[in-house]
Amino acid sequence: MPDSxxxxxxxxxGSAAPVGGSNEDLLAxxxxxxxxxxxxxxxxxxxxxxxxxxxxxxxxxxxxxxAKREAERFRLATDSEYWIAVCFKSREDKExxxxxxxxxxxxxxxxxxxxxxRVLGVPMDEx
Length: 127
Prior knowledge:
Structural class: mainly alpha
């Protein structure tokens, strides 16, 4: 009989390691602030039914807050209005352009826009 936690464990294992991310992405994930503890500010009274209600309320608030953060993360991750495409007639033309612009070191297809801006001398607020 399969363990009832298999699905949860597979989901956790899948979200534990970033796939296809850069070293900067991995470092940012490793240094990210942990999710807040929803029980951190619960004031306990010593009355088990009351304390249980307070914990449940705090957990519900924590789930709602996490759902809001996740909705914003999803919106940002699926927003297609934050990138551009530049096309050439041939690969050779594209690579000649990237070399001449000093961009080839950043990449040859998908590049960090802020890194491109730095190379091109375009001031950007990275926040």
